[in-house]
Amino acid sequence: xxxxxxxxxxxxxxxxxxxxxxxxxxxxxxxxxxxxxxxxxxxxxxxxxxxxxxxxxxxxxxxxxxxxxxxxxxxxxxxxxxxxxxxxxxxxxxxxxxxxxxxxxxxxxxxxxxxxxxxxxxxxxxxxxxxxxxxxxxxxxxxxxxxxxxxxxxxxxxxxxxxxxxxxxxxxxxxxxxxxxxxxxxxxxxxxxxxxxxxxxxxxxxxxxxxxxxxxxxxxxxxxxxxxxxxxxxxxxxxxxxxxxxxxxxxxxxxxxxxxxxxxxxxxxxxxxxxxxxxxxxxxxxxxxxxxxxxxxxxxxxxxxxxxxxxxxxxxxxxxxxxxxxxxxxxxxxxxxxxxxxxxxxxxxxxxxxxxxxxxxxxxxxxxxxxxxxxxxxxxxxxxxxxxxxxxxxxxxxxxxxxxxxxxxxxxxxxxxxxxxxxxxxxxxxxxxxxxxxxxxxxxxxxxxxxxxxxxxxxxxxxxxxxxxxxxxxxxxxxxxxxxxxxxxxxxxxxxxxxxxxxxxxxxxxxxxxxxx
Length: 517
Known about the structure:
The protein is α+β, with helices and mostly antiparallel strands. The chain folds into five domains: about 35-85; about 115-185 and about 275-305, no CATH class; about 185-270; about 320-415, GMP Synthetase, Chain A, domain 3; about 420-515, no CATH class. It is built from eight helices and 27 strands. The chain has helices spanning about 35-45, 60-85, 95-105, 320-330, 340-345, 390-400, 435-450, 465-470, and strands spanning about 10-15, 115-120, 130, 135-140, 145-155, 160, 165-170, 175-180, 185-190, 200, 215, 220, 220-225, 235-240, 245-250, 265-270, 285-290, 300-305, 355-365, 370-380, 385, 410-415, 415-430, 465, 480-485, 495, 505-515. The strands form seven sheets. Strands 2, 4, 5, 6, 8, 17 and 18 form a seven-stranded antiparallel beta sheet that branches. Strands 1, 19, 20, 21 and 22 form a five-stranded mixed beta sheet that branches. Strand 20 and strand 21 form a beta hairpin.
């Protein structure tokens, strides 16, 4: 990661979200039951004015017209529905948008596990290393759900080391270089059938991002995105369905090797993920008993998360794919324009260090720095929150973009700024609405959440009272509305909050006052 970036940035231009008008739902007019019936009656009156005059509602002819209208209405509805499901702007079924994504080579992001730093502590110094089997399972109850965490030794990039024991060195009481990863590990056994393009279906789901490992007869095979050349290498591909079930796909001995008939295939993978695993510091404290190697006795070992859990993600849903897919197509896996840098950053995710929540690429306003791109980034925090990206996430992003950027470009990664904003909202209703206050509260909070959805906000975007009023205007029961904003800067508030090019507004505390008159 570049560390010699001069800070002074006077932006010449800045990447922004491309606003493309979205298609409305395709609904052809005059195709409903009543329209069909009235048009059929009109057609008969015009074409056969003397031959048919029996338009009494109880007549057999009218019944036949209504049967035709009913069938035509149903067929028209299904045709409209099918037409809607083939466009990314109008698709409503998550299975269909996954099919659209697959057709253009885009893979929605599977769930990510929450991770936290852990410590292992013993109560007495030992003369030998305390060796503890890896993958310690800790199951905790969160919102009446049993959520598993597994504890591993961590490498220098704070990634879990799955095949290495946890060690508390001789002469020490603790090891703090541990990582707890939400989820649980499974290993499924299969047999090779000797056929080309063998597919293995993993029934336990959702499978976590980048967690699959495949061994054939004890030899680790390599996961690839595509079988790109005519070589029978030990490679496999994986695909997911809309529920993040995983499918392992092998080659055909032309591109990718076929596992031999009768070969033993072991698929190791992890399931879980989601924001539910974003635990607070100290939430997990467990104790396990382990034997001290060669000394003939055992000791209790205490495990505790000394950082909060973060980075949990439930996986891309319909709206996530709808947002990401156009950006993926436009970048073509290369960084040329500022929008390319922004899109690649916004799409970037890691298995254990989270994902980018929002980015913006800035071009400097002087010629000698014409090839310096300042990329301001923030990591995703929960569903709609943002936080500073960890160094591990930054290094991974830098490596990813270095492989896709122009050779003459120089990338500077910088922390974006979250402009936390407090809001006080006064809403006036008629006193007759008081009995429905709870319902109104739910509707208003839902509208505010939609207004502050991360996809609706970008760097440098101002917050205006009038925009919030427009959002709440759909609730017809509201008579008057007043909103006041406040930030740490006393001069930046009132009925408008302005953000600099490297700042993005996010709500902090929201106080809603209901007034009934």
